[in-house]
Amino acid sequence: MGAGHAHKLYRHGHSPVHGLPPHTKLAAVFAFVVVVVSTPREAMWAFALYAVLLGVVAFVARVPAAFLLRRLLIEVPFVAFAVLMPFVAEGERVEVLGLSLSVNGLWGAWNVLAKGTLGVAASVLLAATTELRELLLGLQRLKLPPLLVQIASFMIRYGDVITDEMRRMRIARESRGFEARGVRHWGVLAKSAGALFIRSYERGERVHLAMLSRGYAGSMPVIDEVTASRAQWSYALALPGAALAVCLLGWTL
User: In sequence order, which ranges of 39-145 are alpha helices (DSSP H)?
Assistant: First the structure.
């Protein structure tokens, strides 16, 4: 797994949430999302309580609201899709501000917005309190297929390598006075993309040969054995546990 690998979503801190083992946080977020998705859409008050629960987690993790809201912008395409649903869905219609909207479409839009926003917020909190290397160790601890964990690890590392290579190629083009201003410059960009692919492929071959020379036989060595105590599991599962109680009330009330 190598050394630590920070990412833009991560917010360094020393809160109780940061200190939890990564696999406990992964399990907690997964269980929370499952509970949220299982909640009936008509129980609007339940989704408000879920938001309060996430707010408590953000407060304990010392994640500012502005930080969380900026990261939630990733769901803008889903919001646009949800906004269109009342206009294109069929079924019973209702007048809202002079607009004829579908009742089923309104419920569907609310369902997508509420559950999608809560799921994204939970994922952002997970990313904000857990480094990528720890996430990979957590997935490994949760017995995810080792090959998938390795692929994810290599994708993260080579993503930065390729990005850095693209930056150097861009600087090289600009140092020679090149600026892409129209279609006639697409050929140069296409050649750069081809060169980037060849360099990336060659680097991947060299790294693979280096791994084989060091005894790689299809599995990565476990450097850190991540464990969790019963108290840590209880602390992490407090969020999905409280959400499950809310979900059950939503089905019974």
Answer: 44-61, 65-71, 76-88, 103-129, 132-141
- pLDDT surpasses 70 at 4: no
25-40: b (≥16 Cβ within 10 Å) or e:
bbbbbebbbebbeebe
Residue with the two structure tokens 């579908």: 102
Q: Cα separation of 237 and 29, whole Å? A: 9
56: nearest Cα among 246, 244, 242: 242
SS3 102: strand
Nearest to 58 by CA among 125, 112, 158: 125
SS3 content of the chain, % helix, strand, coil (to 5): 70, 5, 25
Q: Tell me the pLDDT tens digit for each residue of 146-180.
A: 888 888 888 887 887 888 888 888 898 888 888 77
pLDDT in tens, 67-106: 999 999 888 888 888 888 888 788 788 877 777 888 888 8
Query: Measuring CA to CA, how many Å separate 212 from each of 65, 157, 206, 217?
Result: 47, 18, 10, 7
The pLDDT score that the predictor gives to residue 127 is 92
> Three-state DSSP class for 96?
strand
Q: Cα(57)–Cα(236) distance, rounded to whole angstroms?
A: 10
Q: Measured between alpha carbons, how far apart are the two ends of the chain, in Å? A: 48
Q: Residue 132: pLDDT above 50? A: yes
Residue 144, token pair as written in the block: 């995810």
The closest of 12, 46, 20 to 229, measured between CA atoms, is 20
